[in-house]
Design goal:
Elements lengths: L3 E7 L4 H9 L7 E8 L5 H8 L4 E3 L8 H14 L4 E4 L8 H6 L4 E5 L11 H8 L3 E8 L9 E8 L6 H24 L3 E4 L2 E4 L17
Parallel strand pairs: 1-2, 1-4, 2-3, 4-5
Antiparallel strand pairs: 5-6, 6-7, 8-9
Helix pairs in contact: 1-6
The structure holds 5-O-phosphono-beta-D-ribofuranosylamine (GRF).
Length: about 220
């Protein structure tokens, strides 16, 4: 099996990055992590990637006069590492159309809400404020507009009556750590492809019955 070569983009603690690195250790996993790139020299994830033996690159956006110059450097680093597909994992820079187009259908992102609900920041606070009973996380292909693009996979998390943004964030994060490796496996194995902005699953997947929040039988 020829494994897909993955470059992970991070800006912070890198817990989703770790979940991908760990999943990719399995011999039958269809992807391997070949580089981790951070735009912040202080990102906690850098140390974790080094400990896991993954080469890291720091490309500090502050060292570049323009967004395009920063992205050109990042693009080159990805090419140098022979990357086939990018996984953004807590990467906190807006990308321009040039970069997004070059990696079209070859860049995934994880977002802590059930998109298209709550794109952007502070998703857990906003979910609680709106009173949604089901929240969660999404892995999607990246498009120019932030937190949009064909959806590969989602995980739902029931909101509990006493949830705070922190408790809800912790449960969603746990779901993220299972979801991202699952979604990357689907893409890297060819079980999912995008055409005309639509996701196609091959073979069609069996999904479990709906769950209710609050439950039907409390
Ligand atoms: C995650 O909640 C992810 O969904 C969002 O940023 C957070 C990154 O956390 N995009 P980590 O760096 O992976 O721990």
């Amino acid at each position: 099996m020829k494994k897909m070569r993955v470059g992970i983009l991070i800006s912070g603690r890198g817990s989703n990055m770790v979940s991908l690195i760990n999943a990719a250790r399995a011999p039958d996993y269809p992807a391997q992590i070949v580089t981790v790139i951070s735009n912040r020299p202080t990102a906690g994830g850098l140390k974790l990637a080094n400990e896991a033996g993954i080469p890291t690159v720091v490309i500090d956006h502050k060292d570049y006069a323009t967004r395009m110059a920063f992205e050109a450097k990042m693009h080159q680093a990805l090419l140098d590492a022979g990357v086939d597909i990018i996984c953004s994992a807590g990467f906190m820079r807006m990308l321009t159309g040039g970069f997004v187009d070059r990696w079209k259908n070859r860049q995934l992102n994880i977002h802590p809400s059930l998109l298209p609900a709550f794109p952007g920041l502070d998703t857990h606070e906003r979910a609680l404020r709106e009173g949604v009973r089901i929240h969660g996380c999404t892995v999607h292909f990246v498009r120019l507009e932030m937190d949009t693009g064909p959806i590969v996979a989602q995980a739902a998390v029931a909101v509990q009556p006493d949830d705070t943004p922190e408790t809800l964030a912790a449960r969603v994060l746990e779901a993220e750590h299972a979801l991202y490796p699952h979604a990357l496996r689907l893409v890297a194995s060819g079980a999912v492809r995008v055409s005309e902005e639509e996701i196609h699953f091959a073979p069609a997947t069996d999904t479990p019955a709906p769950f209710f929040s609050p439950p039907l039988k409390p």
